[in-house]
Batch of 3 targets.
Target 1
Amino acid sequence: QVQLVESGGGLVQAGGSLRLSCAASGRTFSAYAMGWFRQVPGKEREFVAGISRSGTDTDYAASVKGRFTISRDNAKNTVSLQMNNLKPEDTAVYYCAADFAFNSRALLTTARQTDYWGQGTQVTVSS
């Protein structure tokens, strides 16, 4: 079992920045590919960013590429999402996700892959 707890959400004006953090506990953190997803009411949860077990490989949704950066610290069991130049359309509940991965370069890019979810943190971007 892996427990994921997100923090860092909040209200920010368009063009501003936020940094989300996810603290993991339980099984070996470095065995999991990690990702961030987001969801707005009435829509499916969508992929935002993913990072491999070692942190050497990353992937981003087209809508956030160049603005968001995912990173992880396996020594501290944390994964972060730095969000810059935020837009109103980034408003959503953001979820941290974990997927057990045998391949050290595997990426978590779909909700279906996910083994564990955090409880979510609200990000609201005002125009």
Target 2
Amino acid sequence: QVQLVESGGGLVQAGGSLRLSCAASGRTFSDYSMGWFRQAPGKERDFVAVASWTNLRTYYGDSVKGRFTISRDNAKNTVFLLMNSLKPEDTAVYYCAAAFKRVGVLPTAPTEFGSWGQGTQVTVSS
């Protein structure tokens, strides 16, 4: 298992920006694709973004394309999520997750990720 700890959440006005961080430990970070998910109260956990274990590919959920950017620093065992042009509907608990490397399509379903952080709250006010 990879241990994951998110940070960087908070309260921001609509149109603002936040950068989330997720620090990993316990396994070789570069062996894992890293994803971000979010879950609003009463809703399912939704895919936000993923960065491949090779650090060559990324993929985004439709609702955040063009606004959010995922990146990773393998030297620091950290993955980031830069969120720009935030909207009230982005309000949720954001989770970092790790999926062991594989060839082919990037993982996007929660069941494909074996390790999860505790989550960090992001609240966007209108």
Target 3
Amino acid sequence: QVQLVESGGGLVKAGNSLTLSCAASGRTVSTFTMAWFRQAPGKEREFVGGITWNGGRTDYADAVRGRFTISRDNTKSMVYLQMSSLKPEDTAVYYCALRWKLIVDVPIQPNEYVYWGQGTQVTVSA
């Protein structure tokens, strides 16, 4: 089993920055793609960004590309999401997810990811 724990959420004003962290434990995750998703009230969970096992490939949703950066530190079993120029529409619960397949790609479908964290709330005020 793998446990994922997100942290770093909070309330920020539009235009500001925030960095989310995801700590993995239980089993080695360094060989798998990890991703961030978000879910706003009344909306479906959506892909935000993902990163392959060695950071060689990253992918982002159009809505965040150029503002968000995903990175990972396999020595610490950590994944990060640096968010800048935040907008009110970025308000959501953000989830860390782990894909349990040895395929070097970044799927955007939530059902491609097996393990999920509990989520951390990000609220951006106007």
